[in-house]
TrEMBL record, chain A:
Pfam families per record: DHO_dh
EC assignment: 1.3.-.-
Protein's name according to its UniProt entry: Dihydroorotate dehydrogenase
Subunit structure: Heterotetramer of 2 PyrK and 2 PyrD type B subunits.
Cofactor note: Binds 1 FMN per subunit.
Gene: pyrD
UniProtKB/TrEMBL annotation, chain B:
Key word Iron-sulfur present: yes
Annotated source species: Ureibacillus terrenus
Classification via PROSITE patterns: FAD_FR
InterPro entries referenced in this protein's UniProt entry, alphabetically: Cbr1-like_FAD-bd_dom (IPR008333), Cyt_c3_hydrogenase_gsu (IPR012165), Dihydroorotate_DH_ele_sf (IPR037117), Dihydroorotate_DH_Fe-S-bd (IPR019480), Dihydroorotate_DHASE_ETsu (IPR023455), FAD-bd_FR_type (IPR017927), FNR_nucleotide-bd (IPR039261), OxRdtase_FAD/NAD-bd (IPR001433)
Protein name: Dihydroorotate dehydrogenase B (NAD(+)), electron transfer subunit
Pfam family, one: FAD_binding_6
SUPFAM superfamilies found in the cross-reference section: Ferredoxin reductase-like, C-terminal NADP-linked domain, Riboflavin synthase domain-like
Cofactor: [2Fe-2S] cluster; FAD
Signal peptide region: none
GO biological process, one term: 'de novo' UMP biosynthetic process
Residues where [2Fe-2S] cluster binds: C220, C225, C228, C244
Cofactor note: Binds 1 [2Fe-2S] cluster per subunit. Binds 1 FAD per subunit.
Protein's UniProt keywords contain Transport: yes
């Protein structure tokens, strides 16, 4: 019996573990290391209508138990992703969640319309939370009315379920979650990175060329857990949780707080084998918890 | 093939001020070539979190050992410098594309120019070039005498010149100042060091074949995270390269530096 399978809108997951968008490219590099079919799903790198070259370097800086990044949504553009990256991924038996980004509503709609027709794209992840681009992204992610309207428009064209990736850089994340649920979102992925800075010790100047970057890694996990916990109580659509997952206990924590599946981000850079390791370690953890199927722990933090 | 291995520290010593030489033993040594690098996790804890990319200074395939030379300049390298003989270190590698040793033929001359902590990868390169019957000339720049290392090792392999910014050892100034006086006769140059040095060399030896090893802050080290991107010169096939997986060594003129 598979004790790890999870069914979500559009997604038939062998297990609840998937690499988070932006931390896994389009899978090619990690495919040199292990069989990608082992993964529950793959959240591919954000795709925009036109190719983007991203921000100047330095783009990353280490912080205590975390890192800042300001890549700037570098990607080869919709045409190339459709013609090269997605067909290449078809050799693996793994559902793809396509991260959709843009500067305008039209951009999002265009990418969503086209990319949702790819045979292996089983869901979209609407990226309204990238903190590292000048226009779009985050502006859609901080205003509930704008977010709801965007989701409505994307839902109208998408052939597959739409998940919305929420930003933690808001005063009230529950309000954002409720807005996208009303807009028709099929699920929520959370959290994206927190805006942060690191200064050069000698000069006092920002270390990252973009000045600010998105903070990720184990340092942000308590914030992510709190937000998943709060959102789970107030929405009925499923949550894919992420933010600093580094070990199997973290997976259990996210699912206890209310996530139905878990994405791994920064730790892919620290230990490129982290995803298959977590998948292998989960059954023993379930034994330890006296649980038959991982589904049983979803939302257990909230039970009386 | 890229592998992750827990390698054992067999030697570690400080060879110049804040410069450490560490030798590790393990199977992935068999796959290494000069100019490649390894990505080292300095601790099993979550802080410091990221791996440290460090170039390979020498490879001893018969004993499954390789050596890195690194400068202690932050928390991560400080933790690394505390490793004792027998300790295990999580190494991902070998990574990237190294120096093409076959770009120069037997009987020809290669000029190796290094700056500071860019010198180490040139050591294995020089050894392999000499094994192929190539004559090597080494010109290395350091800030001061106390930062210099491996003079004896390089001198055994070929003509070796040291340049220091303050003149405390060898020639005073920059490597390009010395090269202007020396006017060495060579067929191919190989270089690793700070960008201004690589830029100066590229224009100085515009008509020569040359290879540059570049450095940038890295995330994953395997080409997935897009942290270490460099723009390419006009006319190249791609707009950008990833230093970690397309490089770190590039032929002169490919990358905009």
């Amino acid at each position: 019996m598979n004790r790890l399978d999870i069914q979500l809108p559009g997604l038939d997951l062998k297990n609840p573990i998937m690499p988070a968008s932006g931390c896994f490219g389009f899978g090619r590099e990690f495919a040199q290391l292990y069989d990608l079919s082992k993964l529950g799903a793959i959240m591919i790198k954000a795709t925009t209508v036109k190719p983007r070259l991203g921000n100047p370097t330095p783009r990353v800086a280490e912080t205590p138990a975390g890192m800042l990044n300001a890549i700037g949504l570098q990607n080869p553009g919709l045409e190339k992703v459709m013609a090269e990256e997605l067909p290449w991924l078809e050799r693996y038996d793994v559902p793809i969640i396509a991260n959709v980004a843009g500067s305008t509503t039209e951009d999002y709609v265009e990418v969503a319309r086209r990319i949702s027709t790819a045979p292996n794209v089983k869901a979209l992840e609407l990226n309204i939370s990238c903190p590292n681009v000048k226009q779009g992204g985050i502006t859609f992610g901080t205003d509930p009315v704008v977010a709801r309207e965007l989701v409505e428009q994307v839902k109208a064209v998408s052939k597959v379920p739409v998940y919305v990736k929420l930003s933690p850089n808001v005063t009230n994340i529950v309000e954002m979650a409720q807005a996208v649920e009303i807009g028709g979102a099929d699920g929520i992925t959370m959290i994206n990175t927190l805006i942060g800075m690191r200064l050069d010790e000698k000069t006092g100047k920002p270390l990252i060329a973009n000045v600010t970057g998105g903070l990720s890694g184990p340092a942000v996990k308590p914030i992510a857990i709190r937000m998943v916990y709060e959102v789970y109580k107030e929405v009925d659509i499923p949550i894919i949780g992420m933010g600093g997952v580094s070990c199997v206990q973290d997976v259990i924590d996210f699912m206890s707080a209310g996530a139905s599946a878990v994405a791994v981000g920064t730790m892919n850079f620290v230990d490129p084998f982290i995803c298959p390791k977590l998948i292998d370690e989960l059954p023993a953890k379930l034994d330890e918890l006296g649980v038959k199927h991982i589904k049983e722990i979803i939302g257990r933090s909230h039970r009386p | 093939m890229i592998q992750q291995e827990r390698m054992t520290v067999v030697r570690q010593r400080e060879i110049a001020k804040n410069i450490f030489e560490m030798t590790l033993q393990g199977q992935i040594v068999q796959e290494m070539t000069p100019g490649q690098f390894v990505h080292i996790r300095v601790s099993n804890l979550l802080d410091p979190l990221l791996r440290r990319p460090i170039s390979i200074a020498s490879i001893q395939k018969d004993s499954n050992e390789f050596t890195v030379i690194y400068r202690v300049q932050g928390r991560g390298t400080n933790v690394l410098s505390q490793k004792q003989i027998g300790d295990e270190v999580d190494v991902l590698g070998p990574l990237g594309n190294g120096f093409p040793v076959d770009a120069v033929q037997e009987g020809q001359t290669a000029l190796l120019v290094g700056g500071g902590i860019g010198v180490p990868p040139l050591y294995e390169l020089s050894k392999q070039l000499n094994d192929r019957g190539v004559r090597t000339i080494h010109v290395f720049g350091f800030q001061t005498e106390e930062a210099c290392f491996y003079e004896e090792e390089f001198t055994k392999l070929g003509e070796t010149y040291y340049v220091t910014n303050d003149g405390s050892k060898g020639f005073k100034g920059f490597v390009t100042d010395l090269l202007n006086e020396l006017k060495p006769d060579f067929d191919v140059f190989y270089s690793c060091g700070p960008l201004p040095m690589l830029r100066a060399l590229s224009s100085m030896y515009e008509n020569k074949k040359g290879y540059l090893s570049l450095e940038e802050r890295m995330g994953c080290g395997i080409g997935a995270c897009f942290a270490c991107i460099c723009r390419t010169e006009e006319g190249q096939e791609k707009d950008y390269v990833k230093i970690c997986s397309d490089g770190p060594v590039f032929e002169k003129g490919v990358v905009k530096i």
